[in-house]
Write the structure tokens for this entry.
Amino acid sequence: MTVDFGNYELFNPGTFAPPGELPRQEARSLYNKRMNEKSFRIEQLKNLVALDATDVDSSDAGVQRLNEWFFKNIEENSDFPVA
């Protein structure tokens, strides 16, 4: 299946290392960056799945719709490590 990614901005994790393996200052900086981007990332996800006429929210049913959307549309990319 082909997904229309529209204006979706890919997430840049900053690092693939577990936070517990990072120096404390770097881990704190990464945490703060991710928390500052949280609302934006949620909106990006909602907009992405809406392109496929899928409505998600924090209800059990909304989370289930998101789960089903992932199984239907997303494949593992071997170019990136799996956490």
Notes: Residues 51 and 64 are 17 Å apart (CA to CA). The helical segments are 24-50, 60-73. Residues 19-73 form one domain.
